[in-house]
Amino acid sequence: MKRFLRTATVLILFLLTSPALAGQQGVAFVTAPEQAHTHCFADNADNAFKCAREKCHKAGGQECLRTRWCYPAGWSGIMSINLSIGFHFPTELCGMPNREALVAAFETMCRNWENANQCNVGLIFSPDGKEETADIAIDPKQ
What we know:
By secondary structure, this protein is α+β, with helices and mostly antiparallel strands. It folds into two domains: 24-73; 74-142. Helix content is 33%, strand content 39%. The protein contains three helices and seven strands. It has helices at residues 2-21, 45-58, 99-111, and strands at 26-32, 36-42, 65-70, 75-83, 88-96, 116-125, 131-138. It has a four-stranded antiparallel beta sheet. It is globular and about 40 Å long.
């Protein structure tokens, strides 16, 4: 009986959540350190990472590494973090409920990153994949 209830519960949860996710896209991010940082939206991780890796190689990336996948994508973005030691790198956030929450999360991340001296949100993506050049500078000391 327990096994039946457990199976029935899993099946019910699957049926309840599947229609809510139908038609939504996920987002994959790929990085080739010091060479390229790319992303793609797709309905599954394999397709999205394949697309992002192809873009990365076309942009000159040698070793294109999978860095993040979110499904559903929600509001997503890329921020560059510049450290006081002269090193800089991109980082991504995804799956946020709205644009304001995404920017607030990037601000919190920047202000709590050890040795960060400047952060810049460069790109923001809506849940349907529309790209916006953001150019939002964040001072981690404020």
